[in-house]
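#lab-general

N.A. 3:47 PM
ok so I finally got the sequence cleaned up, no stray characters, all 482 residues accounted for. can someone with queue access submit it? mine expired

B.Y. 3:52 PM
send it over

N.A. 3:53 PM
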Amino acid sequence: MLDSKIISILRKLNSRERNRFREYVHSSFFNKHKGLVKLCDYIFEYSPSFQHEHLAQKSAFEAIFPDEKYSEQHIYTLVSNLLELMNAFLSQLEFEENQMEQKRYSLFALRKRQESKQWHSVKKQYEIISLKKLKKDAASILESKMFHDELNAEFISKQLREEDQNLQQSSDLLDSYYFAEKLRLACDIKSRNLVIKANYNSFELDSIIEIIDRNYDKFMRIPAIEVYRNILHFFDEDKDIAYDKILNTIKSNISYFSEAEIKTQFDYAINFVIRMLNKGEAKWYREFLELHRYLLKNEILLSDGKLPEWDFKNIVTVALRANETDWVEAFINEYKNWLPENVRENAYVYNMAAFCMEAGRYRESMQLLQKVDFTDESYQLGAKIILLKSYYELGEYEAGINLIRTFKRLVERSKTLSAFRQKSNLNMLKVAARLFKFQFEFEYVGTAKIRRIKKLIKTDLDTLEPVANHEWLSEKFAEICN
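B.Y. 4:20 PM
back already:
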């Protein structure tokens, strides 16, 4: 039972939720099986870790039923039934979170029982709650549609031969919900198709967009439609993107969406900027930093109150490439404590190493890298790039050539790198190898060979794509040509 699903869930509940689950099991309204009460109480003796050896199934059975012969089937059935109670309890918690849904179900139950007076009382309660709770995302549109469905059903029950606007409102809200959700999913589909080379399809998306654009005044005043219709432009690679306009649309509507959905919307903007950076358009470094300064200021990047380590790393990397070294050092020290505790020290040391390398403190950078625990391939690759640049700047060309060999094997054998990152890193290593070889052999080769190597480097820089750290490689090449 130690590895059972019920134990796994209990470990993830907070203390209040655990106590409420115990009360739930003890409630005769939800559970009339006394054996489940005994099992629950026995398990809770080992709260909150639930790690004790006495939680083995046989030990639990003997403690709960001391006068009975051990039955594996009996204890298995009890544990299974307790898990079903847990499932019901979790759904109850979610139901309690949605007051409007509760009221709507009350309206349905009261209408069935023809309790018109109380029905109208609950309707007023729903409307008061909706003023505070309803946003303007697709889920809220759907909630409004279902409320108007209930109002329409109540009207029909009166059998009046007159017009009622709830039917029309339900129909209009259904259109709005469908278009809003269709656009939201279309953004997700296009994003995944780009990132993981998937082949998802959004049925009749062009036709839907045409309908929306043709009825601009009707639909584009709905935030859930306006925002995602604009975000879709981020995926029009062959067109000029009005980046500022799209970003301002997202910013001006953030009060209408949940925190999770707001973060997803800004993720589309971040991914667009990264795609522009990958194309070598340096102006997007500034856009990346301005966007992230806004997200930091408004705490949109945070997850459970913490700054994810990869957002932290990406901000440092881009800021260094934009030559914002002073700002980077302040950022690393200011936001270190915003990182999750389990990765804080590792992320801090790695990013300080990256900063020191860009600041010309190469030996210090290399020493810091020795303290990094390479738990992730991204850290491994990043550390090798920092080492490679440090070796070059320190004139340790032979060490750099040896590093390139091991670096190349790491990239070629990687099972997690995307095809794009793998190719861009291999192209980088190809150019870097020529640069290191040029420096290492410079004093021993003739002028003709020097010219030939320079020509090969220039050709690679001009024709290979994508190339990771293209800007740094170009800068080093320019130095050897002067």
